[in-house]
What we know:
- With about 270 residues, this protein is α/β, with parallel strands linked by helices.
- It is about 35% helix and about 25% strand.
Amino acid sequence: MSRVAQARARQASKAGRRPGRDGAPELGGSEAGPGDQALEAEKATTGPLLEARDLKKTFATGGQELAILKGLSLKVASGQSLAILGASGSGKSTLLYLLGGLDRPSGGQVLSRGLDVFRLSEPELARWRAREVGFVFQYHHLLSEFAALENVAMPALVAGLSQAQAEGLAKPLLERVGLAQRLSHRPGKLSGGEQQRVALARALVLSPKVLLADEPTGNLDAQSAALVNALISELVAEKKMSAVVVTHNADLARQMETRLELVNGRLRPWPG
Length: 272
């Protein structure tokens, strides 16, 4: 079995599982399942591209319940770009994980064009993520033993495309993010900014409807952060996709059309 096939099997075996608290992306699978017919029927209903309704999330700590999100509501329209700012520990990443189906709420709903995503089985939820959502995290989560081209192609391989098809999607994206000369480089041979650009290309390889980015420039120097910021804004506009970006970076936030702040478990307009 080839290295790519081994990684494909390894990633596909995770389908339907939520990630650990390190935020590693769950690629999921796309093979048809018995629930997919109902899923597609529900998706035909109308509504915002992504919506949180009365979302609550609590964690047990020291024998007590700590409320992080307190009845939060949010609508993300098709093509809308949105930044969420807030203090460390305010629940920004938690909200993003809930919106992307990576964690389950303590109460409330997450809807995708009227589809209640948490009514899906775990395999169906994984397939929904693979089709609808692209994730970029603060840490790139690239597979160290694979080249940039293979890393970007991996979600397409897991989705069932041939290696030629997957790499045919991956290569133009790497060229678009300025890495045409780095296709065969492994992550260890790339700078931090280059690694994050590979991660951005990987998030977009299956043309998701919405990009969810959690502090995508948090580990980068100012110059690399500015480049990644610009690429996120440009690619979201080019592909006419929606984006929800959690960030401390005011420059990146100002490039999004809507800016909100998470305070005391609820969202309000950002005053910056």
